[in-house]
Task: structure prediction
Amino acid sequence: MESKDKTARGAEKTAAARTRKRRRPRPAEGRICMEKTTRAEKITVTKPFLPPREEFEQYVDEIYAADWLTNNGPLSQRLEAELKKFLGADNVSLMVNGHLALEVALKGLGIRGEVITTPFTFASTTHALTLNGITPVFCDIRADDLTMDPNAIEPLITERTTAILPVHVYGHPCDTDKIEAIARRHGLKVIYDAAHTFGVKKNGHSLACCGDVSMFSFHATKLYHTIEGGALIYGDSALTRIFNAYKNFGIEGEERVDYVGGNAKMNEFQAAMGLANLPYVPALIAERRAITELYRAQLAGIPGITMFYPDRETGVEYNYAYLPILVDEGRFGESRDALYEQLKENNIFTRRYFWPIVPDFGCYREKHAADALPVARRAGAQVLCLPIYNGLAPEKILKICRFIVEGREVPVSL
Result:
């Protein structure tokens, strides 16, 4: 039995070697050239931005001086005010993370029954619904931007539908006009998962100001972060009291508890990081734009590689938070998974984000495996997010592109 296993493993290694040695045509004239390098350096899919240490420590000194660590401290209050100005938002409620922010939004708006949402998202979006006893109803996505397809929403609406929960995937704006028009016709709430959209504007306004509520994630991997953190952005000031109660165990006074809430409060160290990071956001976006343009210059037009251009849509100011591509095996000559593994072998770490799609998770598969979601399933099988973060050097971007375009027979770099 052992000899058979060794033979099988040997055959697998031989097949893998043949795959690595397959070469596609060289890029068009004017693109980068090949040079040998080592595999030692690791390129991660993302890295958090950290402000100058002394600037963060100034806020930490304030925390020590105030002896106030959590429960709506002075830095949290200041950050809420600064975010209102930065986003042009009427109301901002800070939370400990984006997931609990979404749960608070669902509770605060009284969402129940069924909610139409996207299958092409991070687990948190759907889990927030399920954990609150709400049934997710998956709507397929559009191939050109991977956001919820508005034309597929209305056939999914039933008497039990109470809301629509779209996701601005990779910061690419959903068709908010169509989605919200549908919601108005049917008396539904619209809650946007805007986790990827910090800094994105549409027609001069923050994308977070759309719908009844938008949820931000300020996780460390995001363009703008508070280490961990999140926020709700909304227009109806009456929701402030409700959201603040739900994030603090339902407590509204020393002897008053009117809601069954949890603990979703942002602490002062998170707020300190948020205040230190906020002034850098415009520069971070500008740097990521340059990184994105370099990727585009190398990969655009490569057969089988699809790139996305939200910044070329009318009225959209993009944040360049992610660099997703789709890999069409038939045209590219290799599958997405083969490319992923070969890049990883050469210390380039990408991410299949989002794959599997949510209905194919083990916890949802039994009920949703038969859902007709052809565009989402195809995108899930093809998507690959390439490394993008502030400080990613041009030579590393060129190295990544060489592996994608030229094959991996000989590792290369500048």
Summary: Residues 191 and 303 are 37 Å apart (CA to CA). Confidence is low (pLDDT under 50) at residues 1-9, 11-38, 408-414. Residues 2-21 form the longest helix (20 residues). The first strand starts at residue 91 and ends at 95.
